[in-house]
Amino acid sequence: MSSSRASIAELNTFSKETFVDYLGYIYEHSPWIAEGAWTSRPFASLDDLRAKLDRTLQAAAPEARLALIKAHPDLAGRLARSGQLTQESTEEQRSAGLDRLPEEEAAEFERLNRAYLDRFGFPFVICARLNDRNTILAAFRRRLFHAREEEIATALAEIHQIAGLRLAQIVRD
User: Fold this and answer.
1) Any catalytic annotation for residue 72?
2) CATH architecture designation of domain 74-169
3) 121-141 tens-digit pLDDT
């Protein structure tokens, strides 16, 4: 595999191990999604691959989907501040300006992270690359009033966006 983006045709020839090694990270700490989608080869296009990855996720047991949500880090949280996020999560949080929050905003993120986790039992997930810190804070405040099932669905939709953006960086049609 070269350092350039793999084509759909190349992905269709990858062994299961190579496929999972190449794509397994796009869903945070959950290579089982790439592993499940591998059995749906061949992929006709990037959109087809994305749909089959999502189908694998949607077909998973509720506990597995919840574990995926729980695999995501807090936004601007302790792991981010200590440099312990994945490279992708670090870049995504940086793109939203979460790596340079004023002290007051950092404290607000910390408070909202805690309140959200206490209410729902999993971290707040949003596609940071498609938002900035102000829209993230607004979404945090709004989503705290949602029902748990609605938040699970919203988090999974956000994860699908995150994975799609990650996928587009490494695969070409």
Assistant:
1) yes
2) Orthogonal Bundle (1.10)
3) 999 999 999 999 999 999 999
